[in-house]
């Protein structure tokens, strides 16, 4: 199998051979730009103290990567762009964007090559796509990354087409990088669509001096006019933006929406009614707010887990079936098993005479795959299906597994299906799903749909367990679409970059932060480890065996300890091999942003939903992720951390089968801890993670 970089080198060779057939010559408008690029390359070369065409980062692997990006790849771009098959205007655009990319490299980040590596390689592959007149399709293969390099290709008509598609899926990212193409005629309609989808995110740009706001004022779009009216009346301090659909369709005035936004229950109910529509206005903001508000209620129920049900569920007992459904599907990241069970039982009771199939249709099928996956995971799917007629059960489950390739550049729905497979045990249901997956694969194969074939090929592989492998068709598919092994992390991969194993544990200042931190420290009070206590963080290091160093900020020093550790590691040109999140899931995105390309293990300690997993694998494609169906607990996290650290200290691979058995034995004596342990998902059993990794790998082939 070719690596992404080796394939790119092949592309570069073809590009250079192709461009060599053209006369080389620079116009007056571009002749100075190559010199500026060369100057920037020399400046970067000297950041390690020497001008020697070599980047010394302290790690030989990173040295090679940096040399390829800062020298070879940039030189390739210059040679290709200098040839006349790219018009002069494009040359200017390319050189200006290339200059900005290089100018952003400095003493504090030149050895962090991963991000610029991805962008530059994407630009190079984009040049090849231009040559074959396939730029639009290429850009759509990785929408988030293509948005980041939009400036390089902004003069192409394909960029306008691409952005009109990208903005529907990633409106906030388009807003962030809008400055890359804000001088183009198509900028305003793209901007309008982004703001209409995500007005809550966009309102931070509503300042008279901001270019985005200045451009919006030129808009004649009636929905934009409504948004600007909300801003004129209430500024940025209102929830009325989220209720844009009702305001624009004259169901609410701006004043009414503002008042509703102040009252939690009325706000939730209004959002829920809007969400029943297909593609409502402000959809991105609406989704985010539904998660936030659903969690407000679910957290109260979670926190009362030791109380009687009449007290614990008092704040949701008045909710109807649609509201309870909303709480369930929007709180996946944090809902306790017992909270789910209580909400689910109340949901079934509130359905009354409405069957589940009709109910899903009434909800606009919003997040119905999430609901089915969660019901299967918590052993309640049979009860939900029992509310329907047999033919409705079949129709719903066929729909559950069908048309998964249709969501452009996103596999969230396919991951929901993959996750559900691991929890479904009913043989009749499994047979139905197996037949559906097979027929869907044959459908996308007849259409020569590469994306569809990968999705359904990988899902087919999930059926290669007991009995199914005897089916020759599934056996043949299993050989074509293999899931990656995630049963162990090799010892060498944990020491490859830093000469010793580095951890960073992120604690947060939440209600149980101090208790969690103290029990964590107690875990390492033994003769094999030493703890060094600093003002804002601790450093734990092995005294025997392999060299393992663990940095952890003190919870009360969240905003000082974490950056101090990061600054220390930066000064040592080191990155953590193991990253651990110790806090509620609403902090998880902060920790996920700290993952590096070579992070080998990430302990999430809370739900590994699709959004989290996707962000994790975008940052580190080969990382092993430990997640939980609900909020993690110190009584599981602490022994898990110690087991992994001891394996590494003893020069062992991290074998997840063995580690999980050791963890189970460790917590069995604590009934509450054992119950929470059962909600943890090891890397080798996380079907969603397996699916994402396999899909990403095969999509690049």
Describe this structure as you would to a colleague:
With 701 residues, the chain is an alpha/beta fold. Among the domains are: 4-201, no CATH class; 203-275, no CATH class; 488-685. The chain is 56% helix and 6% strand. It has 36 helices and ten strands. The strands form two sheets. The chain has an eight-stranded mixed beta sheet with strand order 3-4-5-2-6-7-8-10, with helices on both faces. A two-stranded antiparallel sheet has the order 1-9. A hairpin with a 5-residue loop joins strand 4 (537-542) and strand 5 (548-553). Helix 25 (412-421) packs across helix 36 and helix 27 packs across helix 28 (472-480). Residues 18-28 have low confidence and may be disordered.
Q: What's the number of extended β-strand segments?
A: 10
Largest sheet strand order: 3-4-5-2-6-7-8-10
Gyration radius over CA: 27 Å
Rough outline: globular
Mean of all residue-level pLDDT scores: 88
N-to-C span = 8 Å
Put simply, the count of helices is 36
């Amino acid at each position: 199998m070719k690596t992404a970089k080796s394939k790119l080198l092949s592309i570069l060779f073809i590009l250079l051979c192709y461009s060599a057939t053209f006369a080389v010559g620079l116009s007056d408008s571009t002749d100075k730009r190559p010199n500026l690029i060369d100057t920037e390359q020399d400046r970067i070369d000297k950041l390690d103290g020497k001008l020697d065409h070599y980047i010394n980062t302290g790690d030989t692997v990173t040295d090679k990567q940096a040399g390829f990006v800062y020298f070879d790849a940039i030189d390739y771009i210059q040679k290709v762009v200098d040839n006349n098959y790219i018009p002069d205007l494009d040359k200017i655009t390319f050189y200006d964007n290339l200059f900005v990319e290089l100018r952003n490299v400095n003493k504090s980040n030149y050895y962090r090559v991963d991000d610029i590596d991805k962008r530059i390689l994407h630009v190079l592959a984009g040049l090849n796509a231009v040559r074959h007149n396939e730029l639009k399709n290429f850009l759509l293969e990785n929408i988030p990354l293509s948005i980041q390099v939009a400036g390089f290709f902004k003069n192409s008509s394909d960029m306008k087409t691409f952005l009109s598609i990208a903005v529907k899926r990633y409106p906030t990212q388009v807003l962030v990088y809008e400055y890359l193409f804000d001088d183009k005629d198509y900028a305003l309609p793209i901007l309008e669509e982004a703001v209409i989808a995500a007005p809550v995110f966009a309102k931070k740009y509503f300042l008279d001096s901001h270019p985005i706001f200045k451009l919006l004022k030129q808009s004649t779009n009636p929905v934009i006019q409504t948004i600007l009216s909300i801003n004129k009346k209430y500024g940025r301090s209102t929830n009325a933006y989220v209720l844009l659909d009702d305001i624009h369709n004259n169901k609410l005035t701006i004043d009414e929406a503002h008042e509703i936004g102040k009252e939690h229950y009325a706000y939730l109910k209004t959002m829920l009614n809007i969400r029943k529509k297909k593609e409502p206005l402000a959809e991105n903001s609406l989704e985010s707010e539904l998660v936030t508000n659903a969690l407000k209620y679910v957290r109260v129920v979670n926190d009362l887990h030791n109380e009687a049900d009449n007290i614990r569920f008092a704040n949701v007992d008045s909710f109807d079936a649609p509201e309870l459904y909303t709480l369930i599907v929007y709180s996946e990241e944090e809902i306790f098993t017992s909270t789910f069970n209580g909400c689910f039982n109340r949901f079934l009771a509130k359905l009354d005479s409405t069957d589940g199939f009709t109910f899903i249709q009434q909800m606009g099928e919003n997040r119905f795959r999430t609901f089915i996956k969660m019901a299967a995971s918590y052993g309640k799917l049979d009860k939900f299906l029992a509310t329907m007629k047999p033919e409705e059960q079949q129709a719903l489950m066929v729909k559950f597994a069908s048309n998964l390739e249709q969501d452009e550049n996103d596999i969230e729905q396919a991951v929901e299906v993959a996750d559900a497979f691991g929890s479904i045990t009913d043989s009749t249901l499994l047979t139905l799903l197996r037949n559906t997956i097979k027929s869907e694969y044959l459908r996308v194969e007849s259409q020569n749909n590469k994306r569809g074939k990968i999705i359904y090929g990988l899902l087919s592989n999930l059926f290669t367990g007991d009995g199914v492998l005897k089916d020759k068709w599934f056996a043949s598919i299993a050989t074509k679409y293999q899931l990656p092994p995630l049963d162990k992390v090799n010892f060498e991969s944990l020491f490859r970059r830093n000469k010793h194993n580095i951890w960073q544990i992120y604690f947060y200042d939440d209600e149980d932060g101090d208790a969690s931190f103290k029990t964590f420290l107690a875990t390492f009070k033994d003769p094999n480890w030493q703890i060094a206590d600093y003002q804002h963080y601790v450093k734990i290091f092995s005294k025997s065996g392999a060299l393992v160093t663990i940095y952890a900020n003190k919870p009360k020093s969240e905003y000082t300890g974490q950056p101090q550790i990061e600054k220390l590691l930066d000064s040592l040109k080191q990155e953590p091999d193991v990253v651990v999140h110790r806090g509620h899931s609403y902090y998880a995105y902060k920790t996920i942003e700290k993952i590096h390309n070579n992070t080998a293990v990430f302990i999430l300690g809370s739900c590994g939903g699709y959004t989290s997993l996707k962000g994790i694998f975008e940052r580190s494609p080969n990382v092993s992720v430990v997640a939980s169906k609900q909020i993690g607990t110190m009584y599981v996290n602490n022994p898990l951390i110690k087991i992994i650290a001891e394996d590494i200290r003893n020069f062992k691979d991290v074998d997840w089968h063995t580690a999980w058995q050791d963890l189970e034995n460790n917590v069995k004596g604590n009934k509450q801890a054992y119950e929470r342990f059962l909600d943890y998902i090891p890397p080798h059993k996380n079907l969603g993670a397996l699916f994402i990794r396999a899909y990403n790998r095969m999509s690049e082939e």
